[in-house]
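Severity: low
Component: inverse-folding endpoint
Summary: output formatting inconsistent between runs
Steps to reproduce: submit the following structure tokens with default settings.
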């Protein structure tokens, strides 16, 4: 029960902007790497 099932894109983009790391590449790739991030967190919780 519980666990990660999605990534908060707004939070990621706001954090990247605050760190000076916001780029069009991040915006474009984030939806594609979201499943990889979610799976990685799922494996860590097992």
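Observed output (run 2 of 3):
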């Amino acid at each position: 029960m519980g666990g990660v099932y999605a990534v908060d894109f707004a939070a990621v983009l706001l954090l990247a902007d605050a760190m000076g790391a916001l780029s069009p590449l991040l915006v474009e790739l984030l939806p594609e790497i979201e499943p990889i991030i979610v799976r990685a967190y799922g494996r860590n919780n097992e």
